[in-house]
Specification:
Blueprint: E1 5-8, E2 11-19, E3 26-33, E4 40-44, H1 46-66, H2 79-82, E5 94-102, E6 107-114, E7 127-132, H3 134-150, E8 168-169, E9 175-176
Parallel strand pairs: 1-7
Antiparallel strand pairs: 2-3, 3-4, 5-6, 6-7, 8-9
The protein binds zinc ion (ZN).
């Protein structure tokens, strides 16, 4: 049995944010259940967020193909609403983030499973499931990309975000600097 399982269903709001200095930021996934003022928060890795955003794109592309009648809404992101503020009180660090689609409710579940220490029983990993509407998920993925970008310094020449090892700058004909 997992240590605990939480289903946020219905889910009022879901977001991600990063707190800390560039390069040392900690990423959080946070959701609110309807009519519950206390959010549920887990720590995630930047690479998990990146993979989640890509997974969302793939899922929507697949759904668009299979169920063209169910359109993915255009969303407008309000950064004020998406930002989380400390103190955050994470339940665990996620070792795994998954995505699943429930055809009956048309909800998409974002599943966070607790990271395991050596010697832990894999059956005991706690789980949080955020049951998202398409609009909530679209918002989450688009905002997640912005959060990832935010941590990178901007190139003084072209204004695009740079990776720590430099980037291929269009102002320098694609040379790294
Ligand atoms: Zn540049």
């Amino acid at each position: 049995m997992p240590r605990f399982e939480i289903d946020l269903k219905p889910l009022q709001h879901i977001t991600v944010d990063a707190i800390g200095k560039p390069g040392q930021r900690v990423f959080y996934l946070q959701g609110w259940r309807e009519a519950d003022p206390k959010p549920v928060t887990v720590i995630i890795e930047k690479i998990q967020l990146q993979a989640l955003a890509e997974g969302v794109d793939q899922l929507f592309a697949k759904l668009d193909h299979q169920k063209p009648e169910q359109t993915i809404p255009d969303v407008k992101i309000d950064p004020e609403k998406m930002r989380i503020s400390p103190p955050v009180d994470p339940l665990f660090r996620a070792g795994e983030l998954g995505l699943g689609y429930d055809a009956e409710t048309s909800l998409i579940v974002v599943l966070a499973r607790e990271v395991l220490m050596e010697g832990d029983d894999p059956q005991q990993a706690a789980e949080v499931r955020f049951w998202c509407s398409s609009a909530q998920l679209r918002c989450l993925a688009d905002w997640g990309r912005q959060v990832i970008e935010r941590g990178r310094p901007l190139c003084p020449l072209c204004g695009q975000p740079m990776d720590p090892e430099g980037h291929f700058c269009p102002k320098k004909n694609g040379h790294k600097h």
